[in-house]
Amino acid sequence: MSNQVTLSINNQSVTVPAGSTIMDAAQKAGVSVPHFCWHPGLSIAGVCRFCMVKVEGMPKLQIACNTPASEGMKVDTVSDEVKETHKWALEFHLINHPLDCPICDQAGECELQNYYMKVGKYQSQMEDQKVLKPKALDVGDTLVLDTERCILCSRCVRFEDEVTKTSTLGIFNRGDQATIGTYPDRKIKHNYSYNLADICPVGAFTAKDFRFKCRVWFLKETKTVCPGCSTGCNVNLFQNSNQREYYRLKPRHNADVNGHWMCDTGRTMYEHLNASARLASPLLSGQSISSAAALQAVADAVKGLSADKVALVLTAQYTNEEYAGVLSSLKTVLKGTPKVFVWRDESEKADDFDGILFRGDRNPNTRGMMDVLKEHAIQPTMLKGDFSALAGTSPEVTVVMGPEIEAGYPNLQKALSRFSEMKKAVYFGNSLTDAAKKFWLRVPVKTFAEKSGTFVNFNGVAQKLKANPPVFTNVKAVDEYFAEVGKLAHTAG
Amino acid sequence: MPVMNSAYNGRQPNEFKVLTELEGIPNSRSLEVYKKHGGYAALEKILKGKMSQEEVINIVKASGLRGRGGAGFPTGMKWGFVPKGEGEKYLITNFDEGEPGTYKDRYIAELNAHMLIEGKLIAAYAIGASKSYIYLRGEFYDEIAWCEQAIKEAYAAGYLGDNVMGTGFKHHMDVYIGAGAYICGEETGLISSLEGKKGQPKLKPPFPAVKGYLGKPTIVNNVETLAVVPWIIRNGAEAYKKFGTEKSAGTKLFNISGPVVRPGCYELPLGYPLKRFIYEDCGGLIGGKKLKAVIPGGASAPVLTAAEVETMTMDYEAFAAAGSMLGSGAVIVIPEDVSMVEVLENLMHFFKDESCGQCTPCREGTGWLLKMSRGILQGEGQPGDEKKIAEVAGKMMGRTICTFSDAAAGPARSIPQKFAHEFLEYYKKKSSAHGQG
Amino acid sequence: MAYVNVSRDPERNFKNGYLATSLLGLGTTLVTFTKQVFGLEESNTVQWPEVEYQYSDRFKGAHFLTKRPDGRVRCTACFLCATNCPAQCITIVAGESPDKGVEKYPVRFEIDILRCVFCGYCEEACPVDAIRLGPEYSMAGLAERKWVYTKDYLLERDAVKRKVGEKQTSKKDENVKHDSVDSSLPNIHIGGSDGH
Lengths: 493, 437, 196
Hints:
Shape of chain A: elongated
Structural class of chain A: alpha/beta
Strand order of the largest sheet of chain A: 15-14-21-20-19-16-17-18
Distance between the termini of chain C: 85 Å
Radius of gyration of chain C: 27 Å
Strand content of chain C: 5-15%
Strand order of the largest sheet of chain C: 2-3-5
Helix content of chain A: 10-25%
Shape of chain C: elongated
Number of strands of chain C: 5
Radius of gyration of chain A: 27 Å
Order of helices and strands of chain C: HEHEEHEEHH
Number of helices of chain C: 5
Helix content of chain C: 10-25%
Distance between the termini of chain A: 76 Å
Strand content of chain A: 15-25%
Number of strands of chain A: 23
Oligomer: heterotrimer
Largest interface: A-B, 34 and 32 residues
Structural class of chain C: alpha+beta
Number of helices of chain A: 12
């Protein structure tokens, strides 16, 4: 038996591996089959009965998600019979749905709404009272559950059983009283809880973090990479471009990196992007100055110094392009390679892994940084809890490229105090912490959302970031600053 | 139209004793009485006679025995689906008997549970199962005790254990007590329940015969199906085929309920005329009431009108031709003074309560059907509602994992179609009540 | 190809020329003025602000927010008005209501009235009859006045109260919530009249 089967869907021929379902084949052929309970990252439940298709030779309609594709099968997804079935399947889903879309956060990205526009558009015949169920249940620190909106597709139950293996959720009661809920005295407590809100096709699970903050139709998504750890999950970053305000991240499917999911820690990676959490302009000894003046100050400080009098402290949270740019600019200015240090947090356990996605190395680009340094033939010195190596070289100017995601550096305050004690300590970063205030010069930089560069994840997969317009127009990326410094030092010299 | 089988003219039901042989015999539940009437001879014939698995399956196939639980699937063929060879396999007896109006399995246990045990042993031998369960409904207190007693006796007599009758055949049997859900009478729902999960039917494929209980090949058979197997082995397939029609062979237990003079459990050959059953064997309706309708095979079977009953014979094909089904053989007689709207509401209430809530059309549809039929009953209906009920029921059919929603749709489609005029009366009541202010 | 010559008005003559029509208009003004001076005709001019003009009830003036029968704001902060607003003059900040049956309510609801074009699309979009364009038309004020109407102002404006009175409490069906919204347990058989 060959391990490929060829079938036709709506007279379009498609070849899939043996053992695939009609749904897999339809996905491959680009035919959309409406579905609720089927999710490519979970097992098959076959309960929503929405994905029914006509298979030639079978008396009844079959569900696409659980019917194995076989050689020569003829599948039809557009006939009137199938359309009628889809319409009725939607009607059954909607008869007890509260239709409180105005106050539902899912509105705008709700599968019920989408499918109503796609395959529904009927006048409901339901005139009786709807079934009432508990609403706005607190099911954990991150989620709110509305059992009335739930269509019992069981995706969340399967996610808990199969992905996180925490099995907090179950379906209780039977018939139209069936209700999703947590088992008694249990709450959803794991680092992947927001995925439940994502996979919920309706608004039954809503994220507390995003709840009531913004309607989704105001948001614009950017395809980028999560900077939260060295896994480098592919994400969509959502911004309200009118407000220049970031609201959330959602995972983007990439079978090689993160599959369908991302962790809750990664979901917080929008918080430091918004204006209120960031340094707006450079500060020279606590005084706000223009970017040009700040760069002039840096240029003046490094001008004429020999390369070994300048220390460059790196964190692995910048892009490859930035490291390369900074190093080549400095090399030109100093006519030599500065002393390079790599700052890791002292509590870091880089090899930790939670078994799903989250890694102990909280820097997104450790691999990339090391590669760039290697290219420049630089052997960096590690600063991990012990800063004597830096102090020992007694540099005239210390340039610190601080971490963008400070949550990955629990001992940030302590380290920053040590760095700021150095002579002419320049801090590139957006930190608003007290310890950062002690630096001679602080220069704000672009965040991962505002630059297009490359992160290399723990596995060596290089991934591109995609830039949004910056929140502060005067703020630049660190390599752009150093290119400027290079020019200034050149003209001055 | 099905032709009345003339062979039954003049013959009395007590001439067709296959399962009910022990009827009326004192102390019938004991092993001694059973053995005196040929008990365990069939098992002995197979084990001592060194019959092969195929031979047993072929006899059952030849007998034309079909599943007595409701679906009527040929039993021998079902056994044949189990993969051959080594490996753990399971045999489960469906003693959930939840179909409203059905009490035939309980009657078998009341007569003698050893019939079931012997049948199970034969089936287990045929499919190569070394472990089997009797899945009993929790409310059947007496039946649980009888089955457990019979199993104990069988162990003591050497019919069960590591070395059955000294032939080296190993088989263990256990009683599992369910919590009394209708859906656990569905074979995959039953397996889920037996596995300790919520009683919900499983997605097919994979079919239980390939991947069932604990992921192993599993056969689920009704009590009546298994209990008749020893008789077939003892007397041969041909003897069994003498009863019944060509496609519906053998006898079947029919339970009749409703206002008939002699309700009860009757063993009749398939193909027996329904009218004769109601009017002669059961003595007709109490007080000489007129017959309005008959639900021929338990709650899920579409109703037959009195006119349809006239010529109906009780076999799989005749019922199917009339758009109904033989089901579990529970004949529910509805007299002239019962409103069909009430019947519908009652049935819909049952189905709404028993839907497992897994598949959307069934979960939402059964609730909706109840609300609509209750609305009509309470005088809130409006013309066209009966059509809406039939339409909604039609859209539930054939679209779910198990056949529960088809079962609910059966009466919900047939009653509004066949008795539309009764619905109109309810709408009239409403408008006249409004008229009076 | 057919075309119309527009270079010269074919009906141009002295009678419909500039001078004649101007004098005609002036004549009408003089006649009306004289009639009104001698009280032969009613004046259409309203002596505002001494006399207030009564617009139709359906006049779309300054916005107000309606209330629930218990006096709370009806708005559920769905953002549909803000989405629909062509002038983007509505700002809403939603919050979690302590009443679980209401769930979502506007913490802030602001209309930048200087940007508003009084199109009434907000009223059209509202699914709960929470925002209406009221009868108030005199909104003039000095530059230092607050031109962003806040939630409290939109709910409790004297001019609106005076003019719409009871109408500010929307009679639209309340979205009645069952007790089950306060329950953390799945409810079984609501209204359990069937005692199964």
